[in-house]
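Quick review question:
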């Protein structure tokens, strides 16, 4: 039996921008300067939503 994937495994920078309500420049700054985890496939930059949530939680802990 084949299971259906209901959520995408990876999301685009544009989808990440919408989810985080941040602009493109800020997202790329977070990638470069703060280690927002991404997966690169050639020129494509994709984000794992699970890794994004974990990264945000760790970032919150560090600032508190």
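Suggested answer, residue by residue:
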């Amino acid at each position: 039996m084949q299971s259906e994937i209901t959520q995408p495994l990876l999301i685009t920078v544009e989808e990440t921008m919408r989810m985080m309500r941040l602009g493109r420049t800020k997202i790329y700054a977070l990638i470069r300067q703060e280690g927002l985890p991404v997966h690169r496939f050639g020129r494509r930059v994709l984000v794992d939503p699970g890794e994004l949530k974990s990264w945000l939680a760790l970032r919150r802990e560090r600032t508190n």
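Why it works: DSSP finds three helices and three strands in the chain. The mean pLDDT is 93.
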